[in-house]
Amino acid sequence: MSLAVEDQQLKTEDRAGRPAWMEKPKPITQAAKAVTLTLTVLMVILPFWVVIATSFAPGDQINDNGGWALWPREWNVGAYDWVLSNESTTRALMVSLGVTIVGTAASLACTILLAYALARPGVVGGRIVMLMILFTFLFPAGMIPSYLVVYSLGLIDSYWSLILPTMVNAFNLVVMRGFFQGLPGELFESARLDGAGELRILLTIVMPLSKAVIAVVGLFYAVGYWNAWFNAVLYLNDTSKYPLQTVLRGLVTQGDGITKEFSNEGVLTQAPQAIKMATVVIATMPILLVYPFIQRYFAKGMLTGAVKS
Amino acid sequence: MSKIDRLPPVREAGGEVGREAEPPTRPAPPPPPSPASPEPGRRIRRKGLGLGSSLRRDRALLLMMVPGMAYFLVFHYGALFGNVIAFKEYIPFVGVADSPWVGLGNFTALFADPLFWRATVNTLVLSAVQLVFYFPVPLALALLLHSVSWARARKFVQSVVYLPHFLSWVILVALFTQVLGGDGLLNGLLGGGDGKTVVDLVGNPEAFKPLMVVQLIWKECGWGTIIFLAALHNVDESLYEAAALDGAGPWRRFWHVTLPGVRPVVILLLILRLGDILSVGFEQILLQRDAFGPATAEVIDTFVYYNAIVDGHWGVSAAAALAKGVIGAVLIYAANKFAHRLGEQGVYR
């Protein structure tokens, strides 16, 4: 809601955005604010930059610095070659992509259906179901009970163990239900008068109007699956099935499978550090690519559904 | 899941009762000829409609609930039954049902275990440190952002500071090691490097707590501003205007209008944090536990993991997790009661 309100507010404000009654801020206050915010932004960006620069830097430069680079002396894509041709990282990349795509689709389908049914006023059993879902916030299932469920379902070492235990997120469900409840009721009335069934109403009327919330919730799910690291440690014994984050973890802390490469003159051509950082960049890339497109939906989607009281 | 993620649903819990109790706002349609042939507007509850016909009326919606509810029943409510192994000596090959009961034996063993108390102390101290040094930061940043009137700059900063929330802890730890670790940027800039270590904040037990807090601030403080910004935007603009016309300067407006506007949210978040006082960033700490050593970095959640899954003491670990869960639920309840005493809304009514 914050950002939605912000949009409306912009129209009534001048370019400086100051209402008439507000006094002009002192230059020193403004300067302090500008400096603080600039530093904040730089502190967020700096670690990204160091990682990107290191991933492209030549081996001897990284070695001379002791493991990092702020500006590559020459831009070298060798580390990316290594990561994208290495068997274990490419397989992990595929696992992560598969789990993210299948998982997000399954999660969205379940969440949309359940949220839609719970958003209709007076549906039989709706209240008790909602209370059951909200109770999971107060008392979440712990790691050991979840493990026992996955174990008893025979899902250990199955890719489904990376999807099913986190398939519906109660927060996302509540956000989506709130959004559906905010849609004007007349839409449903007229559709039902035309004889449309619930599924048709959902697919042809509700979903096209809910692109924003679906995009945001879809992003939350996709990020969750893509970033998942621990569930693979917990549920998979077969390390060849590990997703990217788990492989990245082994690569960064133990240097799993990285060998130093030297030229004929004995100069380090490919620093292990560059390979690690290139893997970090590749593991971050999908989020960085999708983020700007979804980010504008934060205003419309998430907060109108969630923050209303 | 961060604190902010949990917020709105719990508030929803408060609103839930009120909403359901409200009379339907849509006009009631004419009664249907028979319950078997549903009519428009049938969703509105009518007196005298039996359970059977309600079920028939809502069968499409009930079918839609099936996949999602199956998930909650199996992976949450089914999993809750797994907690019985806290009272059993769980043997994986025998299964949960056939493992022998041991009464409170696991709890006695747990409370006699100095490693558990070490983990508990570490958890409580880290929670307290986070409460003092992390909790105010998103509020401060939100107040700062809110006071920026140049909308473009504000939106740009927001886009940047929200981003780290979407990174995994694995990546975050890699980023921090690259900047603050023994082979990292800071060490190099301070004259180290090439095997010489001047500063290594990743792995130095003394730096553990500050580093955990700094990581949390870096990752979540931007995202944490959202809830405060929403509260700040909900403050009625005319209150500021009226205060300004009455001669209140920026500072007094901040004190008498802005702060009361965010107070309910602050109290709400404090309650949730209190209920969560026994959890401190499981993944974050598990990833760095070995670098700092268990003496500094073992918390209750990592204790449960290592004790159960790695060492096979299932029953004792389940006892620890169950105790933690019950205490958390009780703390939320108590904090909420306390908030009501203070005349605040709290999480639920």
Stated plainly, the CATH topology of the largest domain in chain A is called MetI-like fold
Flag low-confidence runs of chain A.
Answer: 1-15, 304-309
Average pLDDT number of chain A: 83
Q: What is the radius of gyration of chain A computed over CA atoms, rounded to a whole number of angstroms?
A: 25 Å
Give, in order, the helices and strands of chain B.
HHHHHHHHHHHHHHHH
CATH architecture of the domain at 105-341 in chain B: Orthogonal Bundle
CATH topology of the domain at 105-341 in chain B: MetI-like fold
First-last Cα distance of chain B: 24 Å
Q: How much helix is in the residues of chain A?
A: 55-70%
Helical content of chain B (DSSP H or I, runs of 4+) = 55-70%
How many distinct beta strands of chain A?
2
CATH class of the domain at 105-341 in chain B: Mainly Alpha
**Full CATH superfamily name of the largest domain in chain A:** MetI-like
Number of helices of chain B: 16
CATH superfamily of the domain at 105-341 in chain B: MetI-like
InterPro entries (chain A): MetI-like, MetI-like_sf
Main location (chain A): membrane
Protein name (chain A): Carbohydrate ABC transporter permease
Membrane topology (chain A): Multi-pass membrane protein
Model description:
The complex is a heterodimer of chains A (309) and B (349). The N terminus and C terminus of chain A are likely disordered. Chain A is an all-alpha fold. Chain A has 2 domains: 134 residues, no CATH class; 154 residues, MetI-like (MetI-like fold). Chain B has a domain of 237 residues: MetI-like fold, CATH 1.10.3720.10. Chain B has 16 helices and no strands. At the A-B interface, helix 1, helix 2, helix 3, helix 5 and helix 6 of A face helix 1, helix 2, helix 3, helix 6 and helix 7 of B.
